[in-house]
Design goal:
mainly alpha, Amino acid/polyamine transporter I, two-stranded antiparallel sheet, 20 helices, globular
């Protein structure tokens, strides 16, 4: 029995997984592409643009999106080749398990929790912020303690009191909108992927239309003077962190990288794709290209409408149109942001449960995570668990820095995938590859360097938190996953050998 932490899941076992999958194959090429766009467009445009431009890059935010998009493109090309070879749920985790080894795969799966579950939590809090803005536009002003977590609620109350407003004291606070929207998304996901995809398609059409509206309508209000200087002079803060200048642009790229994490969610749905070997690679690349172009155009329009140091941090796009007196556009954009962030949550939580499903099938997580509902054919128990965790954390926790933590996990996973697909090309050159990454040695090398460089430029406390998270992951692996891995079982190994022989 092989006890090495670098033992690999035989590729024949993946083929068996595909044949024995209980998931419904209902997703078309454009359905997958829509899922990718649904995950990508949301937090990046409606939330992070204000922070990244105001505090880090200025008008050069467009360049930050270019840098992040380039780093993602390298990873996307590698993802596409893997997805064409191994069309199974599990994304980067599954790909690396069959190529590099178990510990390597576990660390990717562990870090994808940061990407999907914590990302969904962040988006839920952002959703609540836009929902509150919509209520205010309608003349409805709910109490602070129902719309914010305890810490944030007290901070807002103190600021309002200092401004002269009378705010009653309160001892309890909960972000109720964030809590309930996660439960709604959880219900949709339990009911089934077809229903979730249909809901997402409608939302994607709506928010892409509004994004295009923002680009076209906003272009008429661009003041080119707001683009000067395009790259503001560097500023060093009290912690020694550089804002603006080239370093600020790179830091902003690391922050907005969170806005790109959706494209790899496409690969987590391979088990539910009608023609995964062809359609998944197409959807990955198509969704990334479409969203990158939209991001660049929106960032240029936004920083042209409002000077970068005056951008609103919480709702920058809506506020930019409000400053122009276009109240009707503010309504439209706010509603689109609410819908857009909903679809981001949907795809992120969908991706998380499929990662858990893949890891549980391999024995690295308890069997609880792989139980499929007899009617809906969805991993309903893990979906409910993820929904409960995300809803409670979103309701009670201020998460202003978690997007960076999400980015760190994603950046490392992308770098590891770039290396893994190159390694597989060397070790298994004769494998059928419906899609082959062009100039793979160059693409993989640039992908590794670009993603690690962006990771290096994250804030120091983010990197420390990430190291702690990885350490916990290693402990869990040796305490549970290594001992329960299917590769420990002689019967499983025999089954795999039979599968291999059957394909010879």
């Amino acid at each position: 029995m092989n006890q090495s932490v670098w033992r690999k899941k035989p590729l024949a076992a993946y083929e068996a997984d595909v044949k024995n999958s209980q998931l419904k194959r209902v997703l078309s090429r454009w359905g997958l592409t829509s899922l990718g766009i649904g995950a990508v467009i949301g937090g990046g445009i409606f939330v992070l643009t204000g922070i990244a431009a105001n505090q880090w890059a200025g008008p050069a935010l467009a360049l930050s999106f270019v840098l992040a998009g380039v780093a993602c493109t390298f990873a996307a090309l590698c993802y596409a080749e893997f997805a064409s070879i191994l069309p199974v749920e599990g994304s980067a985790y599954a790909y690396s398990y069959g190529t590099v080894g178990e510990l390597f795969a576990w660390l990717i799966g562990w870090n994808l929790i940061l990407e999907y579950m914590m990302g969904a939590t962040t988006v839920a809090v952002s959703w609540s912020g836009y929902f509150e803005k919509l209520l205010h536009l309608l003349g409805i002003h709910p109490p602070l303690w129902l719309m914010n977590d305890p810490v944030t609620a007290q901070e807002k109350a103190e600021k309002l009191r200092q401004a002269g407003e009378v705010i009653p004291d309160f001892t309890f606070a909960v972000n109720l909108p964030a809590f309930f929207i996660v439960l709604v998304v959880t219900y949709i996901l339990v009911k089934g992927i077809k229903e979730a995809a249909s809901t997402n398609n409608l939302i994607v059409i709506m928010k892409v239309s509004v994004v295009i509206f923002v680009i076209i309508a906003g272009a008429f209000f661009v003041d080119v003077a707001n683009w000067t200087p395009f790259i503001p002079d560097p500023v060093i803060d009290e912690d020694g962190q550089q804002h603006y200048g080239f370093r600020g642009i790179v830091t902003a790229a690391s922050i907005v990288f969170f806005a790109y994490i959706g494209f790899d969610a496409v690969s987590t749905q391979a088990g539910e794709a009608i023609n995964p070997k062809k359609d998944v690679p197409f959807a990955i690349i198509a969704s990334l290209i479409i969203c990158t172009l939209l991001y660049i155009l929106v960032s240029l329009v936004l920083t042209g409408m409002v000077r970068f140091d005056s951008l609103d941090l919480k709702a920058p796009v809506a506020q930019a149109f409000a400053d122009q007196g276009l109240t009707w556009a503010v309504y439209l954009i706010t509603i689109a942001a609410i819908a857009g962030l909903t679809s981001v949550m949907l795809v992120m939580m969908l991706g998380q449960t499929r990662i858990f499903l893949g890891m549980a099938k391999d024995g690295l997580l308890p069997g609880f995570f792989r139980q499929i509902h007899p009617e809906f054919r969805t991993p309903w128990k893990s979906t409910i668990l993820v929904g409960l965790i995300v809803s409670v954390v979103a309701a009670l926790t201020p998460i202003d820095k978690v997007s960076e933590l999400c980015s760190s996990g994603t950046l490392l996973a992308f770098a590891m995938i770039c290396g893994a697909v190159w390694l597989l090309r060397v070790r298994e050159p004769n494998l059928e590859r419906p899609y082959r990454t062009p100039a793979l040695p160059v693409v993989a090398t640039l992908g590794i360097l670009a993603n690690l460089y962006l990771m290096y430029n994250l804030r120091t406390d983010t990197k420390i938190s990430f190291v702690i998270w990885c350490t916990i992951g290693v402990i869990v692996y040796f305490a549970y996953s290594r001992r329960h891995s299917n590769l420990n079982s002689p019967s499983e190994l025999l089954k795999v050998e039979k599968d291999q022989n059957a394909h010879l």
